[in-house]
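ok so i was messing around last nite and threw this chain in just to see what happens. nothing serious, just curious
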Amino acid sequence: MLFVGDTAKERLREIREAKSLPEDYFLRVSITSGGCSGLSYQLDFDNELQPKDQVFEDNGETVVCDLKSFLYLCNSTLEFSGGLNGKGFAFNNPNATRECGCGESFAV
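result:
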């Protein structure tokens, strides 16, 4: 399961409104190679499911990821932190054994 915190839900709503995205667009989360710790999170809006996509509903949000990415993201929660010291979107990922200082990449 992937979870969406209240702060992330609110920010996703704001972005959808600003971009005038239709209701059928969901959040696609994927893991890519890169970053100072080896793996990076990638967030996009999408409206097309792919074979082997994993689909989750939490807190009124639909979150989709491919099977490989789900292996790294299982039981993670997406949060959002704004303000001067805010990181933006960040994952509370129980699978990560190490994270970089900026929180944008991790290792397992």
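not much to say yet. Strands lie at 3-4, 26-33, 39-46, 54-58, 61-65, 77-81, 88-92, 98-99, 105-107.
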